[in-house]
Specification:
8-stranded antiparallel β-sheet; single chain; elongated; 4-stranded antiparallel β-sheet; 64 strands; mainly beta
Length: 685
C-alpha cells in the first residue's frame, strides 16, 4: 500500500546579538549616467538621480561631489562643460558652477529663465552655450550672466545638442529639427530634420552627422539636405570621431564605422547594458555612460568593456520578486535581474513609470507599473508585452500589487481587484463587496483558498471564491490604512501606516496589535520559516514569535521600502542607498518547533535508489497546489499515479511500494501548478 505523509520539518531558531548584524549594500549599481567630462586626471559623471560623481583613478572608484546641489528624485543632472578650473553642470533647474573639482557648487543663473531645464552645456572658445527648454542662452563671462539668443528659433521645446564648425553653429532640438547660426547665435535658420529629436552631432570635413531618435542622418551641405545612413528606429544619443573612426552610442549599444557610416560594427562585448546615453574619450580610454548601469570602460577602442560601478547606486527600488535563484527589482525607471544574490544586476526593462509591483512563477514575469498597467515577460525579461485588456483605463492604471494563485493572477489597482485566468491576456473586475478610495488596493495575499486585499482606508477584505465576493474583516483593526499583508501558516499579518502590525489567527475574523519594540509606520512584510520581517520608515525589524516582540536589525535611519527573502538572504530596499542584503543565518540558527514553508517548488531524488521494494520521494510546495506525481516506465508509459489531488504548502514525502513491478529503470514526474520536474529511479530485485 502506498503511504503519503504530509508533514512539516522542524527546525530550531536562536536569535544572535543584533550588534553583530552584517548588512551588505548590493546595488543595483549604476544610475542613469547622462554625461561624462574630464579635467586632467579627474573624471566627472553627471547622473539622473544621484548628482555628480568624481573619479581620480580612471573610474576604479567614485566619490559623490554634491555639496550645494539639490539632491532629490525631482532633480536631474544632465550635462557637464569644463573650462580650465571651472566645471559647469546643467540641471533641470538651472546651471551650477564648481571651481574646486566639485567640492562645492554655486548657482549661476542670472539671465536664465527661472527653473530652466538645461539639457546641454557646450563651450565654443570662451563662449558657453546652454540648450534649455526655453531655447538657447549664451554666457561670455563664465556663467556670471546669460543672454537669450533665440532670434529666428520657432516652436522649440528644448535644445538637446550643439556642434561647431568654423563660424557655423548647429543646434539639435526636440521636435523642430536642426537649426544653423552663422553669427554666434544672434540669428538662427531651420535646416531640416523636422519632427524628430536630435540628440547628438559629429563633424568630419564637410560631413555633418546627426544622431536622432530614429537613427543617424548625414548632410554634406550644412544641413540643406539629409540622408538616413542607418539605425532606423534606434535612439542615437552620442556621436563623435576618433581619428577617421565614427563611433555611435545608441539604444542598442556602441557601434563603429571606418567608412563614414556606410558600414557599422557592433562593439558590445562586455556591456551588460546596451542602452548608451553618452560616450567620451580620454586619451586611449573610451567611457560609456548607460541608462541604469552606470559607466563602462574600454581600453581597446571598444573591442571589450569592463564595468566601473562599485559606488553608484540606484536609490529607488519599489518592488521585488524572488523565485529560486532569480531576483527581480523594480525601480522608478528599470527592472533589474540578478541570479547571484545581488552580486551582479542586469537591466531587463527600461520604463518611464516606476515599477510598483512584480510577480514571478518561474515562467511568467509580471510587472505592474504606476499609471501604465501590467506587462508580461515569458523569457525572464528579454522582451515584454503589455497585457492590459479589460482594465478601465490602461494608461492610467496604477498597479499596486500582483499575486499569483495557481493559474490565476490577481492585480490590485487604483480601481479595485482584477483577475486574469489567461496570463494577463484579459482582465475582469472582481470587486463585489469591496470598498476602497481612489488609491484602490494596496496589497494582496493568498492563504490556501483565501484571498486577502488590503486597502488604503477601508481595511482588509477576504474572498474565499477567487474574488467573486468580498467581505470586510476588520474587527480589532484600529487603523484601516493597510500597507502590506503576509501569511505564515494559519497566521495573517497586516502592516499599517501609523499603528504597526496586526495579527489574525482566524482569517481576519479578529485582529490583535503585535507591536512591542516596533516602529509603527510599516512599509512591507516578509516571512521566512519562523521569522517575520517588517520594513519601516527607519529600519528593518525581526520577530521570531509571531509578532509578540520585535528586534531592530541594524539599518537604523534608513527608510526601508520592500523587504524580501530567498533561501539564503534577507533583502531590503532603501530610499537613499539602494538594496541591502543580510544572511538569514546571521540571526537564525534554529530552535522552536515551527513549520517551514518552502520558498520554491522542489522534487528530490528518491531514497534509497536503487531500491527493493520500497522508496521514499520527497517534494516541496511553496503554496497550496493541485499536484500530480506519476510513475512511468522506460518507454514513457504511465504505470502508477501516486498523487492526483490538491496538496497544502509544505515539505512532503510519499512512499512508493514497487512489489508488483519488475526490475528496471523508471521515471517519476511531478506537476504542481506550473512547476514540473522529472527524475529517474532504479528497481533491482
Amino acid at each position: 500500500m502506498n503511504k503519503i505523509f504530509f508533514h512539516f520539518l522542524t527546525c530550531f531558531i536562536l536569535v544572535t546579538s543584533m550588534a553583530q548584524a552584517q548588512w551588505t549594500r548590493t546595488g543595483p549599481y549604476g544610475d542613469v549616467v547622462l554625461d561624462i567630462a574630464f579635467s586632467g586626471s579627474n573624471i566627472f559623471a553627471a547622473t539622473e538621480d544621484s548628482g555628480v560623481w568624481l573619479s581620480t583613478n580612471n573610474g576604479t572608484s567614485w566619490t559623490a561631489v554634491n555639496n550645494g546641489l539639490q539632491l532629490s528624485s525631482a532633480h536631474k543632472y544632465q550635462s557637464l562643460a569644463i573650462k580650465g578650473t571651472n566645471i559647469f553642470l546643467g540641471t533641470n533647474s538651472g546651471v551650477y558652477l564648481s571651481t574646486n573639482n566639485g567640492t562645492s557648487w554655486t548657482e549661476v543663473n542670472n539671465g536664465l529663465k527661472p527653473g530652466a531645464n538645461v539639457y546641454r552645456l557646450t563651450f565654443n572658445g570662451t563662449n558657453l552655450f546652454a540648450g534649455t527648454d526655453w531655447g538657447i542662452y549664451l554666457s561670455t563671462n563664465n556663467g556670471t550672466s546669460w543672454t537669450e539668443v533665440n532670434n529666428g528659433l520657432t516652436w522649440v521645446y528644448g535644445v538637446y545638442s550643439f556642434a561647431f564648425d568654423g563660424t557655423n553653429i548647429f543646434a539639435g532640438t526636440i521636435g523642430s529639427g536642426v537649426w544653423l547660426s552663422t553669427n554666434n547665435g544672434a540669428n538662427w535658420t531651420s535646416v531640416g530634420l523636422k519632427n524628430t529629436i536630435t540628440h547628438s552631432f559629429a563633424i568630419q570635413g564637410t560631413n555633418l552627422y546627426a544622431g536622432t531618435i530614429d537613427g543617424i542622418f548625414l548632410s554634406t551641405d550644412n544641413g540643406t539636405s539629409w540622408t538616413s545612413i542607418g539605425f532606423s528606429g534606434a535612439m542615437v544619443n552620442s556621436l563623435f570621431f576618433n581619428g577617421a573612426n565614427l563611433i555611435a552610442g545608441t539604444s542598442s549599444g556602441v557601434y563603429l564605422s571606418t567608412n563614414n557610416g556606410i558600414n557599422w560594427t557592433s562593439l558590445n562585448n562586455g556591456l551588460t547594458n546596451t542602452w548608451i546615453t553618452t560616450l567620451a574619450f580620454n586619451g586611449t580610454n573610451l567611457f560609456a555612460g548607460t541608462d541604469g548601469s552606470g559607466v563602462f570602460l574600454s581600453t581597446n577602442n571598444g573591442t571589450s568593456w569592463v564595468t566601473l560601478n562599485t559606488s553608484f547606486t540606484n536609490t529607488h527600488i519599489y518592488s521585488f520578486a524572488i523565485y529560486g535563484t532569480d531576483i527581480y527589482a523594480g525601480s522608478d525607471k528599470h527592472i533589474f535581474h540578478s541570479t547571484n544574490n545581488g552580486i551582479n544586476w542586469n537591466v531587463v526593462a527600461f520604463v518611464n513609470f516606476y515599477v510598483s509591483s512584480l510577480a514571478f512563477d518561474g515562467i511568467n514575469l509580471f510587472a505592474g507599473l504606476h499609471a501604465a498597467g501590467v506587462y508580461l515577460s515569458t523569457n525572464k525579461g528579454t522582451s515584454w508585452t503589455a497585457v492590459n485588456n479589460g482594465f478601465p483605463q490602461p494608461d492610467n492604471t496604477v498597479v499596486y500589487s500582483l499575486v499569483i494563485k495557481g493559474t490565476n493572477i490577481f492585480a490590485g489597482i487604483n480601481s479595485g481587484v482584477y483577475l486574469s485566468m489567461n496570463n494577463g491576456s484579459s482582465w475582469n473586475a472582481v470587486n463585489n463587496g469591496l470598498s476602497f478610495d481612489y488609491q484602490g488596493i494596496q496589497c494582496l495575499a493568498v492563504n490556501g483558498s483565501n484571498l486577502f486585499a488590503g486597502t488604503n482606508n477601508s481595511g482588509v477584505f477576504l474572498s474565499a471564491d477567487n474574488g467573486t465576493g468580498w467581505s470586510a474583516v476588520n474587527n480589532g483593526l484600529t487603523n484601516l490604512t493597510i500597507t502590506s499583508l503576509a501569511v505564515k501558516g494559519t497566521n495573517l499579518f497586516a502592516g499599517t501606516y501609523g499603528n504597526g502590525v496586526f495579527l489574525s489567527t482566524n482569517n481576519g475574523t479578529s485582529w490583535t496589535a503585535v507591536n512591542t519594540g516596533l516602529n509603527i509606520f510599516i512599509t512591507s512584510l516578509a516571512v521566512s520559516n519562523s521569522n517575520i520581517f517588517a520594513g519601516t520608515y527607519n529600519n528593518v525589524f525581526l520577530s521570531t514569535n509571531n509578532g509578540t516582540s520585535w528586534t531592530a536589525l541594524g539599518l537604523n535611519g534608513q527608510g526601508v521600502g520592500p523587504v524580501a527573502v530567498n533561501s539564503t538572504y534577507l533583502f531590503a530596499a532603501t530610499y537613499d542607498t539602494g538594496v541591502w542584503k543580510r544572511l538569514l543565518s546571521d540571526f537564525t540558527t534554529d530552535i522552536n518547533n515551527e513549520n517551514i514553508f518552502p520558498i520554491n517548488y522542489v522534487l528530490e531524488q528518491n531514497y534509497p535508489n536503487p531500491f527493493n521494494p520500497s522508496t521514499k520521494i520527497k517534494f516541496s510546495l511553496p503554496e497550496v497546489s493541485f499536484t500530480k506525481l506519476i510513475i512511468y516506465d522506460v518507454l514513457g508509459r504511465e504505470v502508477k499515479t501516486l498523487i492526483n489531488q490538491e496538496i497544502p504548502a509544505g515539505n512532503h514525502e510519499i512512499e512508493f511500494n514497487a512489489s508488483n513491478f519488475s526490475s528496471g529503470v523508471y521515471f517519476y514526474r511531478i506537476t504542481a501548478n506550473k512547476f514540473t520536474d522529472l527524475k529517474k529511479m532504479l528497481i533491482i530485485k
